TrEMBL record:
<keyword id="KW-0067">ATP-binding</keyword>
<keyword id="KW-0784">Thiamine biosynthesis</keyword>
<dbReference type="GO" id="GO:0009229">
    <property type="term" value="P:thiamine diphosphate biosynthetic process"/>
</dbReference>
<dbReference type="GO" id="GO:0008972">
    <property type="term" value="F:phosphomethylpyrimidine kinase activity"/>
</dbReference>
<comment type="function">
    <text>Catalyzes the phosphorylation of hydroxymethylpyrimidine phosphate (HMP-P) to HMP-PP, and of HMP to HMP-P.</text>
</comment>
<dbReference type="GO" id="GO:0008902">
    <property type="term" value="F:hydroxymethylpyrimidine kinase activity"/>
</dbReference>
<dbReference type="InterPro" id="IPR013749">
    <property type="entry name" value="PM/HMP-P_kinase-1"/>
</dbReference>
<keyword id="KW-0418">Kinase</keyword>
<keyword id="KW-0547">Nucleotide-binding</keyword>
<dbReference type="InterPro" id="IPR004399">
    <property type="entry name" value="HMP/HMP-P_kinase_dom"/>
</dbReference>
<dbReference type="GO" id="GO:0005524">
    <property type="term" value="F:ATP binding"/>
</dbReference>
<dbReference type="GO" id="GO:0009228">
    <property type="term" value="P:thiamine biosynthetic process"/>
</dbReference>
<dbReference type="Pfam" id="PF08543">
    <property type="entry name" value="Phos_pyr_kin"/>
</dbReference>
<feature type="domain" description="Pyridoxamine kinase/Phosphomethylpyrimidine kinase">
    <location>
        <begin position="15"/>
        <end position="259"/>
    </location>
</feature>
<dbReference type="InterPro" id="IPR029056">
    <property type="entry name" value="Ribokinase-like"/>
</dbReference>
<comment type="pathway">
    <text>Cofactor biosynthesis; thiamine diphosphate biosynthesis; 4-amino-2-methyl-5-diphosphomethylpyrimidine from 5-amino-1-(5-phospho-D-ribosyl)imidazole: step 3/3.</text>
</comment>
<dbReference type="GO" id="GO:0005829">
    <property type="term" value="C:cytosol"/>
</dbReference>
C-alpha cells in the first residue's frame, strides 16, 4: 500500500455552484496532490449570478467536524475561508490555536458578485482572534480596506496595506492585487513578512470567468505548506497554479463562471 499524501484541512463555506468555497478548495488540493478534508461552516445557495442565501452552522457542529478530523487523521496545514459570524471566527481561532499546523487565513468578506459573506460585527474578531493565528493571511484589496481602512490604488498602496495587515499579527501577508489588474494593470501580488518582500507578477487575462480565485489561491498555498514547503515557495507555486486556472476559466450558467481547477490535466 502506498503512503498517504500530505493532509490539508479547509474550514469554509459551501458553494452550491461548485466554483468557490469548500468545493474549490478540495478541487485545488486534489490537483496539487494533497488529501483534502473539510469543515463546513456555512451552506450557501449560489450560482454564477450571485448568492441567494446563507445559513451558518452552529459552533458545536463546526467544532465536532474539526475535532473528528484532527484527532483521528491529523492535519499538516489548514486553510480558512468563509466564517460568516463572530462566534464562528472565535470558534475556529481557538481550534487553530490547539492544532499546531500552519494556517492560511483567507478573510472572506464578500463574494465575487459583491454579496456579503462576513457579518460586520465579525471584523473585530478576525483582527483580534484569527489573524494572529495565521502563518499567511491572503486578503484581496476590498478585504484589506475592510480590515485596516487602507484603500489601495497602486503598488505603493499595496506596501502600506501589507504593513497594516502584518500589524494585526500574521507571520506573512499576501496582498492580492487582482482588483488593480481589473483596471488595466498587471496581476501583481505582494508577499512579505515585514523584512522580505516578494512581488509575484503574471500577465493580465481578459477571461471574465474567475469565480473562486481567492479560495483557490489560499488553498493552493495551504497545500504547499502541507507538503513541507516554506511560505515563499508555497506562495510562488500557488501563484503559478492559480494563474493557469484563471486562464482556463470557463462559462457556466448566465454569470461569472469558475476558474479551471483541472487545467494541468488537460494541457
Amino acid at each position: 500500500m502506498s503512503d498517504a499524501p500530505p493532509l490539508c484541512l479547509t474550514v469554509a463555506g459551501s458553494d452550491s455552484g461548485g466554483g468557490a468555497g469548500i468545493q474549490a478548495d478540495l478541487k485545488t488540493m486534489l490537483a496539487l496532490g494533497v488529501h483534502g478534508m473539510s469543515v463546513v461552516t456555512a451552506v450557501t445557495a449560489q450560482n454564477s449570478l450571485g448568492v441567494r442565501g446563507v445559513w451558518e452552522l452552529p459552533p458545536e457542529a463546526v467544532t465536532a467536524q474539526y475535532r473528528a478530523v484532527a484527532d483521528d487523521i491529523g492535519v499538516q496545514a489548514v486553510k480558512t475561508g468563509m466564517l460568516a459570524s463572530a462566534v464562528l471566527v472565535e470558534t475556529v481561532a481557538a481550534l487553530l490555536a490547539d492544532t499546531g499546523a500552519p494556517a492560511v487565513v483567507d478573510p472572506v468578506g464578500v463574494s465575487k458578485h459583491g454579496d456579503p459573506l462576513l457579518a460586520a460585527s465579525a471584523l473585530d474578531a478576525v483582527r483580534r482572534e484569527l489573524l494572529p493565528r495565521a502563518a499567511v493571511a491572503t486578503p484581496n484589496l476590498d478585504e484589506v480596506a475592510q480590515l485596516t481602512g487602507v484603500v489601495v490604488e497602486d503598488e505603493d498602496g499595496m506596501r502600506r496595506a501589507a504593513d497594516a495587515v502584518l500589524a494585526l499579527g500574521p507571520e506573512w501577508a499576501l496582498i492580492k492585487g487582482g482588483h488593480l489588474a481589473a483596471h488595466g494593470g498587471e496581476a501583481a501580488d505582494l508577499l512579505t513578512d515585514g523584512e522580505t518582500a516578494l512581488w509575484l507578477r503574471a500577465p493580465r487575462h481578459d477571461n471574465r470567468h474567475t469565480h473562486g480565485t481567492g479560495c483557490t489561491l489560499a488553498s493552493a498555498v495551504a497545500a504547499g505548506l502541507a507538503k513541507g514547503q516554506d511560505v515563499p515557495q508555497a506562495v510562488m507555486e500557488a501563484k503559478e497554479y492559480v494563474t493557469g486556472a484563471i486562464a482556463a476559466g470557463f462559462a457556466l450558467g448566465g454569470g461569472i463562471g469558475p476558474v479551471g481547477h483541472a487545467w494541468q490535466w488537460h494541457r
